[in-house]
Every structure is written in structure tokens, then in C-alpha cells.
Design brief:
This protein is α+β, with helices and mostly antiparallel strands. It has a single domain (about 65-245), classed as Alpha-Beta Complex (Aminoglycoside 3'-phosphotransferase, Chain: A, domain 2). It has helices at about 30-40, 80-95, 105-120, 125-135, 180-190, 195-200, 210-230, 240-245, and strands spanning about 5-10, 15-20, 20-25, 50-55, 55-60, 65, 145-150, 160, 165-170, 175-180. The chain has a five-stranded antiparallel beta sheet with strand order 1-2-3-5-4. A three-stranded antiparallel beta sheet has the order 6-8-9, covered by helices on one side. It has a two-stranded antiparallel sheet with strand order 7-10. Helix 2 crosses helix 6, helix 4 (about 125-135) packs across helix 7 and helix 5 (about 180-190) crosses helix 7. The relative contact order is 0.17. This is Aminoglycoside phosphotransferase family protein. Pfam families: APH. InterPro entries: AGP_Transferase, Aminoglycoside_PTrfase, Kinase-like_dom_sf.
């Protein structure tokens, strides 16, 4: 019997399909796809096995285990699993820097003012909620020592098994030199109750104001894009709830 084709995610930048145990990632930016493959080769953490590459398609094997959590859903993973995730992030941040910057952190900082104005002008969110979170977001925009960052370390991109071992990290399309606090913030966004576990595994001093600032900054700058691409930032536990939790 033929395997069904599942659309995992699809938008104007890229799409990912699943056919059985194979994931087919279609990216119109060949340079970005090249950087993703190179980032996985350089990263000192488990990643996804590349099966083949024929631009614009990258074929990847499925990872064992399950995502540590998903935004908008309660995490069923143990505290030990979150600590293991923190340890994996630390090993990545301690690795030699890649030669290219991550696009995610810096571009969000540049977009902050315009996105906040849009959210208020179109009455997407109350002005006081936007203003409060904008003040928090600006704490993330401080000088920092760059690290090898994943750039989009959503909790759904980190896979673990029952014995609380990280089996792999997905989606390295935004990897590069960046702010280590950004990775920690994205991993724990919507699951702030596990920040302490992640930091215990991370085992290094972390600017907590910067992490919390990135929670606000990523949420504020993502809402318009999510709405335009068919996602719902107002869903329980997602970006708008993250902003409310910061008040």
C-alpha cells in the first residue's frame, strides 16, 4: 500500500512534506538550504540524517522519539528531558562559530518598532499590552557575545526518548552566529515553567532579562507573519498568550 503524503508545514518560504519515514523539505533559496546542511554537519548535537539532496528538495530521515513539547500544548516530557535539552543547547553554544550569521535574532530587532505600530494601528492587540511587551523586548537588544545558535529552536524541533536523551534537533535553516539567549527563549516560549530545568542542564550564567525579552520580541514580531500565513497566534498558549503572561 502506498504511503500517504502529509503536509507538515507550508508557506511562501518553504514547505515540508512527509511520506512514510521520509521528510521532503522544499526550499526555494538554494544558499539557505546549503547552509542548513552545513550547519547540521558542524553542530555537535544529534541532528537529522540527510538521505539525499536534489535542489530544491532536501530529503531527511525521521527522528526517533517525540518532540519535547509543542507550543500551545502542555508538555508531557519530564524535567530530566528538559535538562537534557538544556545540555544539548549548551554544547551547541560552546562549539566553534559558523562563518555566517543567523537571520532570525537581528532581523526581529530591526522589525520591532514597525510590528508594534501595526499591532496597535490595526487594533490587533491593546496598546497597553503592546507597549508593556515592547519595553521588555528592548532588553533583548543588548550587546552579547555571539554563539553558534540554532536560530529557530522551537520545542517541537527538539526530540527526546523515554530515557530523557535528546535524539535529534530539527530544522537548521536559520542556524548561524547569534544570541544564545534567543535559542533559550524560543525553546521555552510558552513553557516558561521549564526554563529552570533547561538552565539547570545548560549549566552557565544566563541573562534572564534577555530571555524574557526575547519571549516578548519574538511574539510581537511574529504575529503579523503568522496571521498572513494561516497560523493562529491567538490559540491558547501561543504568541498572544505569551505576551499576556509577561504582564
Amino acid at each position: 500500500m502506498a504511503d500517504d503524503v502529509e503536509v507538515v508545514v507550508a508557506h511562501r518560504e518553504r514547505a515540508t512534506l512527509r511520506v512514510g519515514d521520509v521528510f521532503l523539505k522544499v526550499d526555494g533559496d538554494a544558499d539557505q538550504a546549503d547552509r542548513e546542511v552545513e550547519s547540521m554537519a558542524l553542530a555537535p548535537v544529534p541532528t537529522v540524517r540527510v538521505l539525499w539532496r536534489t535542489p530544491p528538495v532536501l530529503a531527511l530521515a525521521a527522528l526517533p522519539g517525540r518532540a519535547i513539547a509543542r507550543l500551545g500544548e502542555p508538555s508531557t516530557a519530564s524535567a530530566a528531558a528538559w535538562r537534557a535539552a538544556g545540555a544539548a543547547v549548551r554544547s551547541l553554544h560552546d562549539a566553534p562559530l559558523p562563518p555566517w550569521p543567523s537571520r532570525r535574532g537581528s532581523t526581529r530587532g530591526e522589525a520591532l518598532a514597525g510590528e508594534c505600530d501595526w499591532l496597535v494601528s490595526y487594533e490587533v492587540l491593546p496598546a497597553d499590552l503592546v507597549d508593556h511587551n515592547r519595553g521588555l523586548a528592548e532588553r533583548a537588544l543588548r550587546p552579547h557575545e555571539p554563539a553558534f545558535t540554532h536560530g529557530d529552536l522551537q520545542c517541537s524541533h527538539v526530540f527526546v526518548v523515554e530515557d530523557d536523551e535528546v535524539t535529534g534537533v530539527l530544522d537548521w535553516s536559520e542556524a548561524g552566529r547569534g544570541d544564545p539567549a534567543y535559542d533559550l527563549a524560543v525553546l521555552t516560549m510558552g513553557h516558561r515553567e521549564h526554563l529552570e530545568d533547561v538552565l539547570a542542564g545548560y549549566g552557565a550564567d544566563v541573562d534572564l532579562d534577555a530571555v524574557r525579552g526575547w519571549w516578548s520580541l519574538r511574539s510581537l514580531t511574529a504575529i503579523r507573519w503568522l496571521m498572513e500565513h494561516g497560523f493562529d497566534p491567538f490559540a491558547p498558549g501561543c504568541e498572544v498568550d505569551v505576551l499576556r503572561s509577561q504582564v
